[in-house]
Specification:
The chain is of the alpha+beta class and about 130 residues long. Helices cover about 25% and strands about 30% of the residues.
Length: about 130
Amino acid sequence: MKSVTTAAAPQPAGHYSQAVVHGGFVFVAGQLPLDPATGAVVGEGDIAGQARQTLANVGAILDAAGSGFDRVTSMTIYVTSHSHWAEVNRVYAEVLGEHRPARAIVPVGALKLGCLLEIQAVAAVSPDL
């Protein structure tokens, strides 16, 4: 098992890794819409902006693990309101294009720092990693 760390995504705020590679897969920890350089929330109140930043953070971690969005097998998206779903889905489709991994949306009451969504992912990696 190998931990993945990149400065291109927000650093963990607790006792966990940005991602772990094991058994041909990378397991990306839940990511928030935080600026990797400052740790500040990006796009406060703007679900599309938060979705873009969160997916950018996931993408940076996937890249650091030797994977990418085209190798994602599943994503779980936590949202603070179902009313955000249409806009999240639009941004998600822009980023993932024709690739359609398994996906779940989970409504939650609140997220850290008042963020509107959090995304975690599982993706395939090269078997030699």
